[in-house]
Every structure is written in C-alpha cells, then in structure tokens.
Hints:
two-stranded antiparallel sheet
Amino acid sequence: MLKEVIIVEGKSDIQRIQQAIDADCIATEGFTLRKGVIEQIRVAYEKRGIIILTDPDTAGERIRRVLTKKFPNAQHAFVPRNEAFANDDIGIEQASPESIRRALSVLHTETIDSSNEFTMADLVSHGLSGFPNSAELRAAIGAKLGIGYGNGKQFLYRLNHYGITRAAYETAVQSIINKQL
C-alpha cells in the first residue's frame, strides 16, 4: 500500500487508480473543493502526505494550483495528456493502469523559490516555444520528465520549480529529438 494519499478529481478516477495500485484516494469532487473535502485532504497531508494527480486539462490544473497553495509540500504526479484521452474524454479515469503507475513513479514537490536554471531561451533553442510543433515537443519532454504538459510559460515554471536538473532536461530533450530523426 502506498504511504501517501492520492488526490484525484472524481470517483471514476479512484476506481482507475485502484486498478493500478493499492492506495487510498480522496476525490475533490470537481473544483468546488467543499470544506469537508479540504479538511479530509488536510488530515491526510499532515499524517501521511499527499500526491496530487489531477486530470491533464484546464480544470485539473486549476484544482492543482489551489491545492498546491493550501498544501505546499504536496507531491505531484502527472499523466501525459495523450495517455489520458479516450472515448472523447480526457482524465485520469481514461488512463491505463501502466500510465498511472509510471506517473506515480516520478514525483515532484513544487518549491516556492525558482531555481532560475532555465529561461525561455532554453525552450526556444530546443524548439519548445515559438515553433509549429512546440506543443507536441513540450508534451513529450514533459512526459519524459514527469512534469506533464504545459504551455511555454507553465512548462518553464515547472522546470524551475519541480527540481529538474540541467542534465535531466538535456537527456529528455535529446531522447525526444533523436526519436523524431
């Protein structure tokens, strides 16, 4: 059984998580984040730690941001968008158990202070911003690094706030670029 409690958006997400791993989960029940749900999450956060695993969509990112403010030492896991899409829907409940296990194997804790290791020039020089296929490249490299998909600004934030090293970034970039050649 996983020590930490996984925070997801809904009951279907919990069912899918339990197909992938033995873990306790709490569903936010969407963006409303009722007081009782926040209290459940707070108790889990203080006693066992939490892993935020929200849907790779706009609503999931909004929920992640709110929870991160309330629980700054929470760990984060990301299922890549292309692995969480099925039946014309995107979400954790659409992800395979393998995708969920992979996401949970690469956890990050957001830091308040930026490492300032990466700049927008890094993204541009590797084609991750300002080019027709930049979104596709960011998605692939974000999946490799375990930081999920984001637009250029979000991606840069995650690189600098989730403890990504220059070496890990360069390795991910090279592996994705070599695949495309």
